[in-house]
Amino acid sequence: MSMYIPSYFEFVNSAKLLAGDYALENITEEMSLLGSSRPFLLSDKGLEKVGSVKTLLDIFSKSGLKVSGVFTDIPLDSSILKVNEIASLYRKANADGIIALGGGSVIDTAKGLRMLISQGGKDILKYAGAEVLPRGMNVPFTVIPTTSGTGSEATGVAVIKDEEKEVKLEFISSYLLPDVAVLDTRMLESMPPRITAITGLDALTHAIEAYSSMQRNPVSQAYAIAAMRLIIEYLPIAIKEPHNKKARLAMANAAYIAGASFSNSMVGIVHAIGHSVGAVSGVPHGEAMSILLVPSMKYNVNEAREEYSDILLYIAGDVYASTPNENRAEKAIEVLSAFVDQIRTMAPVRKTLSEAGVKKEDFQKIANRAINDGALIVNPRAADRDDVLRILSEAF
Amino acid sequence: MIKTVKKAISNIVLLVLYRALRVLSQHDSRVRNEFEALPEGFTVALRINPSEGEIRMAKVNGRLKRIGKRDDYDVLITFKGIDAAFKVLTGQMGVARAYAEHRFTLKGDIGVTMGLVRMIDIAEAYLFPRIMTKRILRSVPYKEKSTLTIYRKVFIGV
Q: Which CATH architecture has domain B3-148?
């Protein structure tokens, strides 16, 4: 096995990572160094209800950080209207930085807010696309994820809905990366087993797709390998023992690392179809990943044979050693399939699209969306509508 | 190869690509379907930085037409430099590989651009010999019409 060296690649992971004990207490110092003494806190109603927002504010208060405002009314899909609404509160509060506490929706909304403020309040929709967002003004930005899956704290990607045109626009830019990402188990322990399971499988999918995509490079692959190893070892423990700090922190690290990996080498067909299954049939993202991962890997196997063979080494070294080279890619899929099944025995994660509520009559709609998903462009194997329909049928 | 030659060839290919897309949007069912899905008035520009070339197109009355310079386009694809643009435009590098290597920036809706990429892939299958497209495309689209027919319509207009 030799590592793939592309003729050219780029890699950026500029966020400073604070991971582990008392990480939250160090935010005050970090924000101060970045030039913020009155940050605005974004979170969601659920986290407010379970007390995470209060816990965080208490920690801030003890470490001398006073937030200028708190906003928790964040919808599942971040939208331009919501970003504009928060921006006006941000300005009214005379805030000078942003702290996001939450999952993907909160973090994407915070990225949108940061984009808007840093561009001087101008229309951000014109920055939709890839690599067209200029740096803009300094707006110190810290992200504290409360799930270990999306890896959004380490990605230069945001999806924001344009209500007027009824489209979700994707923004890809290294200037969307936060300045600081904070992984602290106190914000993660309340995750129930099902959420731990599906977000963990989302992170695993990020690592696998990033490792095998057309945009892979030695740095993103090194990150992906680390993420896979952590997830295989610690996801079952994090589900079984929700208060096991080591396992929780390992999974938070894994999600961050997998996020940094796919931010630099993209994801692939599992995400292209998964986004569409989520949009059309409302299947939670991580669950869609867990259902589609194996059928999609089978679809890609001939084009990603070498990468899948490598993956076997990182997730099951003993099996790799005892498997002939020509069978390792298929064996990797088998091992991953067994791993996902093992997770299903530990938490309620549905096994098929039909169990997850997808209707066969929606397949065309899902396929039409999937082929227009940007994640497909660097999938190792090209896919058209019929290919997507075949994968959907297998996962049904 | 000297830069001026690359620039001259790239600009000729941009024009050929536009003409191929216009022809295929009428004569190839897959390109026609993609094109019909675009809204009337949709604008797209392919640009090579810095000021090395540009082609601008729009859907006008259901047909693909060239248009003059505008302040804004629905989709603007900007190659960061002439060298990578030359490789893509002469069939040495596919659009997906160029994207993977950050050879261009993309302003606009990525979802809509996926359709444009499929249209360009099909155009490349007609314009370049299979020995080249096999190397640069993950899957070479089949040809609904003969290459000769499309070449005749692109270059002679009949």
A: 2-Layer Sandwich (3.30)
